[in-house]
Design brief:
CATH architecture of the largest domain: 3-Layer(aba) Sandwich
Bound molecules: cytidine-5'-monophosphate
Number of strands: 5
Helix content: 55-70%
CATH class of the largest domain: Alpha Beta
Strand order of the largest sheet: 2-3-1-4-5
Distance between the termini: 19 Å
Strand content: 5-15%
Length: 225
């Protein structure tokens, strides 16, 4: 591979399908995967479990410093209350800086990684080889999230899920620190009308083209025979 780790940045709002896409891309290219939402969730969970105030920046920073990015428990951290708290603590600038630093170290480790979140292409890995901004209409996202929760046995009302997603989108897009927005050089992928398979094929196409473009800029050195 030419010129450094292969980093793929995937951003987008909650329930856009970016997590599924990120996992599949990581498997396809043989890269590690980090769902950066889990890092915010893990800090929120640590504060909630310690009974700390979730706006306590020093406590959040300490929890972030102690975090092992290779040992995040998705099952435990996917609880709704933890997601709500995560979306609130994600506004704390000191905490963001601490987590972003750790996420960058994770990404830079060869052969590279797929990171998904809200600010990967803009802040965490602005030099990523390929950037995707995955989105879908709020209604489609609410339908998918509701089906997913019902499959896990949680009784849930789709209208409530939609209201919740809209509230979280608003919070993520309007915060001063690293708001949710596509990087200027991100490829937009609207999955509203797409199956997961079609979205995956479109994403692979984008990444393959980005990798080829990088190889043209930094060709492999000739190996003497
Ligand atoms: O994606 P997920 O719902 O797990 O993320 C939880 C919260 O963490 C989001 O609502 C968002 O506010 C925050 N987050 C963030 N930056 C990221 C990933 C997640 O601010 N890169």
């Amino acid at each position: 591979m030419s010129d450094g780790p292969l980093i793929i940045a995937i951003d987008g709002p909650a329930a856009s399908g970016k997590g599924t896409l990120a996992r599949r891309l990581a498997a396809h290219y043989g890269l590690r995967h980090l769902d950066t939402g889990l890092t915010y969730r893990a800090v929120a969970a640590a504060l909630l479990e310690a009974g700390s105030d979730i706006t306590d920046e020093a406590a959040a920073k300490a929890a972030a410093a102690a975090l092992d990015l290779y040992a995040l428990d998705r099952e435990h951290l996917s609880a709704h209350g933890i997601g709500e708290a995560a979306s609130k603590i994600a506004m704390l600038p000191v905490l963001r800086r601490q987590l972003v630093e750790k996420q960058r170290v994770f990404a830079a480790d060869p052969p590279g990684a797929v990171l998904d979140g809200r600010d990967i292409g803009t802040i965490v890995c602005p030099d990523a080889v390929a950037k995707l901004y995955v989105t879908a209409s709020p209604e489609v996202r609410a339908r998918r999230r509701t089906a997913e929760m019902r499959e896990r046995g949680t009784a849930i009302d789709e209208t409530a899920v939609l209201a919740d997603l809209r509230r979280r989108d608003e919070r993520d897009a309007s915060r001063a620190e690293s708001p949710l927005k596509p990087a200027a050089d991100a490829h937009l992928l609207d999955t509203s009308e797409m199956t997961i398979e079609a979205a995956f094929r479109a994403a692979v196409d984008i990444v393959d083209r980005a990798v080829l473009a990088r190889e043209r800029v930094h060709p492999e050195p000739d190996v003497p025979v």
